[in-house]
Each structure stands twice: as structure tokens, then as C-alpha cells.
Amino acid sequence: MKRIITIVSATLFLLVIFTGCSTTQNNSSTKGIKETNKPIKVGWIGPLSGDVANLGENVRDAVKVAQDEINEQGGIYGQQLEIIFEDGMCDGKGGANAANKLINIDKVDVILGGICSGETLAAAPLAEESNVLLFSAASTNPKITDAGDYVFRIIPSDSFQGTFIADYIINTLNKKNVAIIYNDDIEWSVGVKNVFKKRFLELGGNIVSEEGANSESRDVRSQLTKIKQSGGDIIFAPTYRDSGVIILKQKQNLGIDLPILGGDVWDDMTIAQNGGMAANGAMFSVATKAELPTNFKIGMKAETGTNEINTYAPRAYDALHILADIMNRVGTNGDEIKNELYNLRDYKGIADTYTLDKNGDMENASYNVFQFQDGEMVKVY
Amino acid sequence: MFFQLLINGLIAGSIYALIASGFSIIYTTNKFVHFAHGSTATVAAYFLYWIFSNFGLPLYLVFPLTILIAALFGFLVHLLIYLPLKKRKSSSVILLIASLALMAFFDNLMQLLFGADVKILSIFPHGKGIEILGAYITPIQIVILIVVLLLFFGLWAFSKYSKLGKIMRAVSDNPELAKTTGINSIRVQHWSFVIGSAIAGLAGILIALEHNIEPAMGTHLMIQGFTAAVIGGVTSIPGSIVGAYVLGLTENFGIWFLPSGYKSAIAFVLLLIFLIIRPQGIFGINQGNRDQKM
Q1: Residue B258: CB atoms within 10 Å
Q2: Does residue B275 sit at the A interface (CB-CB below 8 Å)?
Q3: What angle do CA B157, B249, A177 make, to 5 degrees?
Q4: CATH number for the segment(s) B2-283
Q5: Do the Cβ atoms of B106 and B42 come closer than 8 Å?
Q6: Per-residue pLDDT tens for B106-151?
Q7: Selected residue of B89, B126, B207, B209 to mutate for chain A interface (largest A Cβ count, 10 A)
Q8: Which pLDDT tens digit goes with each residue over A172-186?
Q9: Which of B127 and A148 is assigned the larger pLDDT?
């Protein structure tokens, strides 16, 4: 008997650990709605725990700002908008769990998210099966293009970013030998790396070294030692933020003086703060950013208590406004919204102007390159 | 390249050793897997961060205080969680489950208190390392290497010559027999938690200085520390340190030949080889079937 109890409790416990705890937060702005006037529920998936939790929290707060604005302006047909926030934990398992809960228990018609490409790719088949719309403002993996009819995003695919970086390194920086270090456990990182590699080889460049490092590993010295020996003249490092800080620091420790270029995830001042001198000179590419309106900045400050606004937050804000606009026109049916999204043309948001193609992807994209210089981000291209 | 990889392996091994040795001390006298040992290092690192950024105490006070807090933390965990379970004659499986619960609890508590983002302790500047024979090593890394070397000899001498060390080995060898000779085995287990956790506190400080501070830092290192302890022989304290170096060097030299994505795979293949060929580890003593009754 005791044995059975042990086994059962062990199984239960492991289940709890490995499925993680999802956080559900119902925003206070839906208070005071009468039972007869049910709020319209929209799901949200993004990382709220783990390594990139702060990224998810910032995007969540931007969505809350948009939600408050929409509800203050009368909601959708007079109904309040309610958002159910689920932790996707930045991986496939978490994304699928969150999507399952939102679709089967909360019965939402639309899910905003995920943020990490792994989450979106795992949630996509579930959304597709139940005719639920999946609308991401942050997942850039090229595979999402073909993830399904109900899957949309308002951030350019990494097919654009990988290609842009390859062109930039060859044509602008005039460097032909590149060493790559990437996070082999992250869909986004592998995606950018693959597109980059293909384009870079087409342009006649050489990949002299290609090293994988787990995004949670805090020791990449041996990977960097191999890169140092490889004879490359630039390092391309499409890694997550904290992994990037470790790479920059250990690169400096090992006396490697090569220029280094990361992806849009590095668009984060934390790199400069935590990397210190090691971050000096590091570059990253990011989709062209518009100057953000003051009311959004004020809203974010009120919501987060800081001035932090990451790359994805304004896009997520735009995503909810696009949805609210469409719902006000055609109602909350997933299929109707889907048709409207395919017809989205030149929608002016605060972060970008959006036109979606037949795959539910951004039709085109332009990028800039920034560099960390003495603790500041400076536009260099 | 060889020399740099050797240094990389030694640094990695030293960090694993810091976790493995404390874990091994607790395991030898308690005979259950204290997975929350990694969380002790995490708690110590956050304590260091908190006290350093709020109170501006001098370093010669901050470091010993952190180690003391870690020791106290380990002692309380044993006194309040494990001891009541042991008194109810809980099996080592129950204690293992309790330790997993503690690990999840404290990792999440640290995230709740301090946030999910990485904390950086900028006590010593991080810069270009010192060049030795074409390889680079930073001053903090040299300190880590020396500390672990001292720890290795200290623990070896402790378990061989000191009275408490000898008693610990006696309890480790046969707790029932030790009890009949008048040894208070609970007191010895308390001490092993205090000493093991103090080492985890030291680990927390050094890892905080070398890498950074994040809620899951201890848990990540615990996996490697546990692997190292098994390779070295989990019942041998100096053995766990040797195991840590074997692991660190194998991982880092392994990716000289293999793609670097295999780095953690190398560690687990090594663990499997040891579990199959030499389950008692390099320095462990084969105790036959006696342990299976536990």
C-alpha cells in the first residue's frame, strides 16, 4: 500500500514539475460587467516563467495596455474584452499545454501568441484542428509560414532576417569567413541560422565554424575556443539574450577580438548592462522600428513600473488592436476574422505598417543594424 | 587549442566539484539524494546579491556571512523537513521526492522574490583573461581552481584525520552499527548538512562571480554535480571532486572532435558507461547488496 502511495505521489509530483504551473490572470478591467453581458474572451500565450519570462511579461503588459484602451472605448460591440494569459514556457510542451487549455476549457476563438517560435509551432496544429485563430506578434521562425491556415503573424519571418544579415556581412562589412554560434535548443535560433547559412553560401561566403550551445548553458568557452581557431573574421550569434551575454563575456575572457553580430533578440539594453565592456561593439539586426507614441509609453510605464519596452511589445499591442478592429466589423467568429486577416493591407500600427500575404506572413520587411557603444544602442545601418 | 581546452575543462570541472563535494558529504551520511542541494547554492547567491546591493558591507564580512547563511539553510532544511520524515521511517524514495519538492519550491521562491531576469554581481571587473601558454584564464577562474584544490585536500584530510570525519565515515559505512557504539547519528547527519551546505554557499559565491545569478542556476549545476558525484563514487568525498574533473575534461575535450551540440550528451554517455561498468564510481567502495535494504 505504502509503495503504491509512493509511486502515485511521485508520478503526480513529476507531472506538476514538468507540466509547470500555468498562470491565469483575469484583468481587473472586466470587473463590473453584468452576467448577461459576457465579456469576449481572447487567449494569450507567452513565456511567463523560465529564462525569457521577462520578455513575456513585457509583451503581456503591452497587451494589457491595448486591452484597457479598447475597453475604455466601449469594447467590442459594447462587450468588454477579457484576456486569459497562459504561460507557454517558451517551448513546445508549454505552448501545447497552454493552447489546449485555452481552446478546450476557456473556449476562446482567438489566441494571441505565442511569443517563442517553439510555442507557436506547437500550438498551431491544435488551433488549426479547432478552427481557432493563432495570431503571433513575435514568433519569427520560417516554419510558421506553413504552420496552417489559421496561423498569422505580424512580425517578419526570419527568412527575411537571415537573408538580410548574410547580405549585410558580405556586402556592407565585406567579410567572407563567418563563424556561427547558435542555441541548438531554440527553434528561432536554428531557423535564423539555417536561412543565413543558405544565403551566405549562395553569396560566395565561407562558414568556417558552426557551434551549437544550449541556451541555458553558462559555459561556452570550448565552443568559442573552436571559433578562435577557425580563422573566421566575424562571429554571427543568433542566440537568446542571457546566452548572448555569456558569449560576449567569455569571448572577451578568451581574448577573441572578432566583431560579433546577433539577431533581433539582442535588441535589449540588458545586454549592455549585464555584458558591460564585453558588450561594447556587439551588433544586432532588428526589423525597422518606428518611434513609439507617448501614450503607449505612458501606458507601459504605468503597467510595468519601468521604462522597459522590448521589440515585441508594440507589435503585440498592434495585434490586439487589429483584432478588436476586425471583431468590431465582423464579430468574433474565427473563420470571419481569418478572412479579414488575409485581406489586411497597409494597416498602420504603432510599430509598423502591416500587409499580410497568402500565408498569413508579413509581405515584406526592412531591417536596421544597431551597435552597443559604451552602454548605448547606436544605429549603424 | 589543447591548453585552452584543458583550462576550460578544469574550470568547468571545478565548478561541478563545488556542487558535487557538498552533495557527496550529505549523501554519505544520509543515504538519500538531496536534489535541493543545488538550491542551497542558489539561495546563497541571491543572499549575497541582496546583502551586497543593499547594505554595502565589506567583502570580508559578506562572503563568510553568505557561507554561514547557506550552512544555516541546510541545517534548517534537514531539521524541519527531512528529520520529521526520517522519524516516520520514510524510505529514501520519499526523501528524494521531498528534495525535488524543495528544489522546485526554492527555485520558484527566488524567482518570485528577485524576478526571472539574470542578476549580475559586479564586484570584480570582468575583462580579458591572463594569457598563459596561449590560453586565457581570468583571475576569478584562478581563484576557483585554487579554492577547489584546497577543498579537495581539506576534505580528504577532514575525512581521514578529524574525529567528526571519522565518525561520518563510520555512519556512512553502517549507521546501525555506529549507533550501537554510541554515535549519535542524527547529530552527525546534522553536521553533514551544515558542512555540505556551507560548501554549497561557497559554490554559490564563486558561481555568482564567474557566471551570474538566476533562479535555476543551482538546479542546472545539480545535474552536472550529481553526475560528477556518481562518476567519482558518491560515497567518497574526494572521489566526487575527481569525478567532477573527469566530467569537465571529457565534456570539453569531447567537443574538440564532436560537434559542440553533443556537449551534454557526452556527460550522460559517460554517466551511463559508469552506471553499467562501474556503478560504485571511481573511488566508491562496492558494498555488495547491503544497501538494497534501505
Answers
A1: 12
A2: no
A3: 150
A4: 1.10.3470
A5: yes
A6: 998 998 898 877 888 877 776 778 888 888 898 889 999 999 999 9
A7: B126
A8: 999 999 999 999 988
A9: A148
| CATH dotted code for A2-156+292-354 | 3.40.50.2300
Residues of chain A with CATH 3.40.50.2300: 2-156+292-354, 159-288+367-379
- pTM, two decimal places: 0.81
Domain boundaries along the sequence of chain B? 2-283
CATH number for the segment(s) A159-288+367-379: 3.40.50.2300
Please give the Cα distance from B250 to A220 (Å, whole number). Answer: 15
Tell me the residue type at B223: I
SS3 B247: helix
Instruction: Choose among A214, A223, A249: nearest Cβ to B264.
Output: A214
How deeply is B53 buried, as exposed, middle or buried, from its count of CB atoms within 10 A (0-12, 13-18, 19+)?
exposed
Beta carbons of A274 and B128 less than 8 Å apart: no
DSSP character at residue B111: H
Tell which B residues from 39 to 78 touch A, by Cβ distance under 8 Å: none
d(CA A161, CA A366): 9
Nearest to A256 by CA among A230, A276, A275: A230
Residue among B2, B5, B8, B92 with most chain A CBs within 10 A, to mutate: B8
Q: How many residues does chain B have?
A: 294
The end-to-end CA distance of chain B, in Å, is: 47
- Whether A218 and B131 lie within 8 Å, measured CB to CB: no
